[in-house]
Design a protein that fits this description.
The complex is a heterodimer of chains A (115) and B (114).
Chain A (H helix, E strand, L loop, with lengths): L4 E3 L2 E4 L5 E6 L6 E8 L3 E9 L2 E5 L6 E5 L5 E5 L8 E10 L5 E5 L3 E5 L1
Parallel strand pairs in A: 2-11
Antiparallel strand pairs in A: 1-3, 3-8, 4-5, 4-9, 5-6, 7-8, 9-10, 9-11
Chain B lengths: L3 E4 L2 E5 L4 E7 L7 E6 L6 E6 L5 E4 L2 E6 L4 E6 L8 E7 L10 E2 L3 E6 L1
Parallel strand pairs in B: 2-11
Antiparallel strand pairs in B: 1-3, 3-8, 4-5, 4-9, 6-7, 7-8, 9-10, 9-11
The chains are: A mainly beta (115), B mainly beta (114).
Chain lengths: 115, 114
C-alpha cells in the first residue's frame, strides 16, 4: 500500500459525459501528479500540482482539468468524454528520496471506461 | 517524441536466471532515473532509482547500471523468481524547480517460468 488513495476504482460512463476522479496524497506530500495509462500511449504525465498551485503540464487535453485543494487532495475533471479517453488514470504523490530525486508513490488508479 | 526508449517489450526467463531490461534516453537534462514494477490491476511501485553521478546501484536482487556517456541505463534482476513476473517501466525526470514529472519507457512484460 503506497498510502495514496484514489476513488472511484472503476468508472463507466458514456461519450459526452463529465467525470471527476479523486486523489488523496500520502500524509505530508505536497506534490500530486496525474498520469494516464493506455495500451497505445503507455504511461503519460498529465499535470502536476504543488501545494495547491499548478507546476507542470504534460499531454493533457483541453477537455481535462485538475485542481489541488487546501487539504492537498486533488481532483481530475474529464469532460466531453470520448471513447479514446478510456484508460487507467493514476495519481502519484512525491517526497524527496535518498537518490536525490523525487520519489513518486502511485495510487491504485481509476479505470475509466467510456462507452 | 519518445524521450525514453525501453527494450525488450517482453522477456521470458527461467527461475534463477538473470533478467535484463534496457533503456536509453535523449534528454541530457534528465538527472533521476527510477524503475517501477507494476502488477496487473495495481499502480506502479518504485523499485530502485539512480542518479547520473553513480554508475551502479544495487538493492537486494535488483541492480541498476548507468552509462552516462551512452545515455543508457539498465535493470538487472538476479536469481529471477516467478513472483517477479510483472511489467517493468524505466523512467526519467529532470529538476525544474518543484516540477519533476516522470517520462516513462514503454514497459517490459517479464515472465519468470517456474
Amino acid at each position: 500500500d503506497s498510502g495514496v488513495t484514489q476513488t472511484p476504482k472503476h468508472l463507466i460512463t458514456a461519450t459526452g459525459q463529465r467525470v471527476t476522479l479523486r486523489c488523496s496524497p500520502r500524509s505530508g506530500d505536497l506534490s500530486v501528479y496525474w498520469y494516464q495509462q493506455s495500451l497505445d500511449q503507455g504511461l503519460q504525465f498529465l499535470i502536476q500540482y504543488y501545494n495547491g498551485e499548478e507546476r507542470a503540464k504534460g499531454n493533457i487535453l483541453e477537455r481535462f482539468s485538475a485542481q489541488q485543494f487546501p487539504d492537498l487532495h486533488s481532483e481530475l475533471n474529464l469532460s466531453s468524454l470520448e471513447l479514446g479517453d478510456s484508460a487507467l488514470y493514476f495519481c502519484a504523490s512525491s517526497v524527496r528520496g535518498t537518490s536525490g530525486g523525487t520519489e513518486q508513490f502511485f495510487g491504485p488508479g481509476t479505470r475509466l471506461t467510456v462507452l | 517524441q519518445q524521450q525514453v526508449k525501453q527494450s525488450p517489450q517482453s522477456l521470458i526467463v527461467q527461475k534463477g536466471g538473470i533478467s535484463i531490461i534496457n533503456c536509453a534516453y535523449e534528454n541530457t537534462a534528465f538527472d533521476y532515473f527510477p524503475w517501477y514494477q507494476q502488477f496487473p490491476g495495481k499502480g506502479p511501485a518504485l523499485l530502485i532509482a539512480i542518479r547520473p553521478d553513480v554508475s551502479e546501484k544495487k538493492e537486494g536482487r535488483f541492480t541498476i547500471s548507468f552509462n552516462k556517456s551512452a545515455k543508457q541505463f539498465s535493470l538487472h534482476i538476479m536469481d529471477s523468481q516467478p513472483g517477479d513476473s510483472a511489467t517493468y517501466f524505466c523512467a526519467a525526470s529532470r529538476a525544474s524547480g518543484s516540477a519533476r514529472q516522470l517520462t516513462f519507457g514503454s514497459g517490459t512484460q517479464l515472465t519468470v517460468l517456474p
